[in-house]
Amino acid sequence: MPAKNVLFIMCDQLRWDYLSCYGHPRLHTPNIDALAERGVRYDRAYVQSPVCGASRMSTYTGRYVHAHGASWNFVPIKAGEMTIGDYLRPMGVRSVLVGKTHMKADAMGMSRLGIDPTSQIGVRISECGFDPFERDDGIHPYSGHEPNPPYNDYARAHGLDAENPWEEYANAAEDDAGDLLSGWFLKYADRPARVPDPLSETPYITTRAMNFIDDALESNPDQPWVAHVSYIKPHWPYIVPEPYASMYGPDDVPPANRSDAERENAHPIFEEFMNRRVSKNFCRDEVRAKVIPAYMGLIKQIDDQMGRLFKHLGDRGIADETMIVFTSDHGDYLGDHWLGEKDLFHEEALRVPLIIYDPSSEADATRGTLNTDLVEAIDLAPTFLEMYGGAPVPHVMDGHSLMGTLSGTRKVDPRKYVIAEYDYSFLEVRAALDMPSRECWLRMIFDGRFKYIHGERFRPMLFDLEADPKELTDLGDNPAYADVRAELHEALFEWARKPRQRSTVPDGAIEGTEIQDRIGENGILIGYWDEAELEDAIKNKWGKRLANANPLLAPTLNKLLRREQPEEKT
Fold first, then answer.
1. Strand, helix or coil at 516?
2. 231 φ, ψ (degrees, to nearest 5)
């Protein structure tokens, strides 16, 4: 039996290599590892942009960034853009959000179309096509997000009395005198958050996910569902409550993956990203020694909550009918390559964990296996569509379903390249380079060995991950690699030349006879020499149904019918 439900779990800013099943030497994540042992672990999964909003919109739509247009955080996807919930809802699947989307609503588009943003359709447009069971983006106290999210009410109800418990408890420490120390400051990352672990953000989202599961079973147990359980952490502020705050220390911090050569004759764009405040701070050993143990603690907390969530599925009797997808929206440099945050295309930023557990017997052959295909985050939307029996929509979705990798029936990787894009026009890098905003678009193409990055006005960047897996040597101006750069540039240009905006008409309707038949059916008779030519088209190409559907063609059809009528016998 195929799975009935999907638990679609996404962490924010979780690096692929900070899980023990992906090889981290000090951070043990047994619950996530156990999921990998029951399912498929994808070793080469990449997101379509290294920034939250753009990456998530690609995952939800199954489309590349320039196709859906939400190129950076708080850039809305257009009202009318189809997402996972929009595809699955007509098939009877309940699609809900529990946690973060980083979605900004297209208020202007809804206003133009006369859609009330508080209506059901308006809310779905505002929530990436999901019905929000719990929307919580986390970074809300002074950023224009919801100023008093349900989490704050929950915290107050459990004794955390403050104007903003998210800011004053969940993301703050305190000194010996009891004064608040904001978790926004990297300096305090090694101090425990004031909030008790059970009341912190990650357990809260888990609790709300369990509340949804209970609600679904009680309200309509026969209805299938996709629950997007989207955790805010380990995204900054880098601060975690006990016992996790004390689990790791400076001795657990791996050496930074960087070299002095990276800063010598650096690519101008790369150099300006290295010059950002967050990058300069993460280049300091004292910052990494404070922040990375907290980052690891946040991940350990997530793993513990995965155990809690997976157990709840079993306790409610639906573990054997629920597909589980575990992934991230991007990584975190943490000082690697002299960078902080996640704004470029190194593996630390773009490569993500992806684990899929399919409970159906068809997936028994692949349990515990490692898949090495080139996989993109846009593959998840078509995977869910196929799982529920929907017809593929390649004229809309750019991704490829992974269902064949779960059953072991896909023998050939359909993808030759991974594509990622980044619009850096919103950052101070644009001003430092004196670039017009429309030209601040970086595109990356990766063929599994060579990673080529194109940006307007500058030479390309190129990395050979076979010879240089740590990506420390930029070959973008090395004459020995001119042919490689030319080949990947042409491949990237070929990809860019293919239109992705004709999403309202399927390819088959164009490549088949339907469009031309409709033209004839509507009486648009272009280029015919005489009646005989039209008669031939009706008789041998269109068929009587089409001619009969249009009264303009009736005389010609009647003429044909009289000619084909057998003579009466005398």
1. helix
2. -80, 145
